[in-house]
Design brief:
single chain, alpha/beta, D-Maltodextrin-Binding Protein, domain 2, 14 helices, binds alpha-D-glucopyranuronic acid
Length: 337
Amino acid sequence: MRRTPIVLAALAGSAALVLAGCSGSDSADSGSGESRTLRLAINQTEDYPSTIALNSFGERLDAATDGRWAIDVYANEQLGAQAEALQLVSDGAVDLAIVAGPQLENLNKDFVVFNLPGVFESDEHEMAVVNDEEITGDLYSSLEDQNITVIGGFTAGMRGVYTKEGPIMTPADLAGMKIRVQETDTMVRMIELMGATATPMAFGEVYTALQSGVIDGAENAEPSYTTQKHNEVAKYYSYTNHLINSDYLVINTDLLASMSDEDKELFRAEWDATLVEYMELWDQSIEDAIAAAEASGVTFTIPDNAAFAEALAPLAAETITNDVQQKLYDDAKALAK
Ligand code: GCU
């Protein structure tokens, strides 16, 4: 029998404090024939491809395990922005979360390799690398001392820069502009090399920051641009193609360990099916996003990509500082077709 999750409205704004004292998921023992409904935090909207694919992941897991494990997906940062959600997974207050690569880089610097411009050549290449156990096995278990296990990843797509004033054709066009980036030094350095000034902030704050003029622009792939409605307030989208970003499914390590071997296998199999469903939805979501943006009067431009690539060239060499990172980089590159 599925249990009702805790009421979350009261948690808004102070999720970490309120949840820190709670036990993790519903406390029934899956081995005793009772069910557990896991809480999964994501910062995307309900209609974003990963939210949709994760909802079906939960339904299929529920069916495959005869109701022993189910998942409730909390979209739109309801359980906190990614940094908080990650902390809550570590604490065991939230069971699962989707977090972008830069968040994991803040816990183990080796994750930085998959956050670098130029590492992935396409969304498909990225999906192959971040879901290849031989490449990622040690990396994904490296956070277990913090009670976090990485299960695998979704591509978050090739990113462009979008601005209130435009079009952006060269790095010089970004001079003096404040561009929002994800909250890591690497992302700050990346946008500086591209010619702009960096403003790190959480995803959910970007719309208001754009609208009020606190920032002049941001950078993301088309589906995030339109599902977050940033196209309403920043009408110039430039295909700078500077980065393919990764999103990861993370789970509380103790929780994963509490699953029977059979249920762990079912979990893994349903996750693999989720990756397939995600990619089908993903390609369609890019088309839908472009159509929606065009209908809202957005100007798409193809800038001087060589100039941006040249500006970003130093970043990988500056950033990769140990053998583990170098091997991850070489393994990723070797998988490119
Ligand atoms: C993408 C990605 C998110 C990330 C966001 C961001 O939308 O899928 O996980 O949080 O970019 O720029 O913050």
